[in-house]
Amino acid sequence: MKNEFFKGHGLGNDYIAVDPEDLEFRLTPRVIRAICDRNWGVGSDGILALVPSEKADFGLRIYNPDGSEAEKSGNGLRIFGRYLYATRRTRKKQFTVETKGGIVEMELHLDRHRDPEAATVEMGRATFRPGALPCALQVEELIQQPIQAGGRHWRFTGVSVGNPHCVVWKEKGQSWSREELLELGPQLENHPLFPRRTNVQLAVPVGPKAIHILIWERGAGETQASGSSACAAASAAVRLGLVKSPVTVRAPGGNLRIAVGPSFELTMKGPVAEVARGFFSPPFVRSLR
After folding, report:
1. What's the domain range around 281?
2. 189-238 pLDDT, tens per residue?
3. CATH number at residue 22
4. 225: which residues sit within 8 A by CB, 6+ positions away?
5. Where are the alpha helices (DSSP H) in 155-211?
6. The whole model's pTM is what?
7. Same domain, 276 and 248
8. Quick one: average pLDDT of 269-281?
């Protein structure tokens, strides 16, 4: 069947997975925006496109709902793993995936029905160097650097885990509101310090091995969860001495477990769910051409 799609979510962060070879249209920015629209399209936080790879078992391109491209997505990778297994593109539980943010290793964990209910992903290594995000500040590392947003002065820690992140902290015992996220998220995402924009996490430590985050994703806006955001915030928390690894990262959509190694190598484990499989209708496909 042509024009098939698979939809899944990781802690409420949902993606549509497709094989472009089976589509009768190209994934242009306009088409991506139309598919991801929650009123006029299928609706999702992005699109996962299967592509060939010469370096890994599978290749993946990740598109944000505004049509831009992301380097890496932790929740997207778990959904992509379930898509590959569910559609029988692999029957292996362990395989590699090449993203624009690097090659990752993945292991699927099956439930009693032999469906992937969770996945462990080796997410690469975090770095705090400005050139990796990129960030315009001329410093050795982006550790608690000053930034202004919402008419106030803050301190942020910049982290790249294959894609860019700006983590802003409050002290233990305090909290962030959704109103603060909606105000600060777009300002920080598009701040002049980040020429390619950035993902944003408003974070607070809540225990010796736990943090809570609110998430504003580059090109997507507010999301209930994000694997790469969890990795970035956990890395920053360990680097600042706020928590110890492994870190439970709590977000509105649920929890992820992030192991942060001595050299900031990252392992993420979290749930993944399948929502639907279907095909884009002929009239909708015609509107995309």
Report:
1. 4-123+272-288
2. 999 999 999 999 999 999 999 999 999 999 999 999 999 999 999 999 99
3. 3.10.310.10
4. 10, 11, 12, 13, 75, 215, 251, 252, 253, 254, 256
5. 178-189
6. 0.92
7. no
8. 97
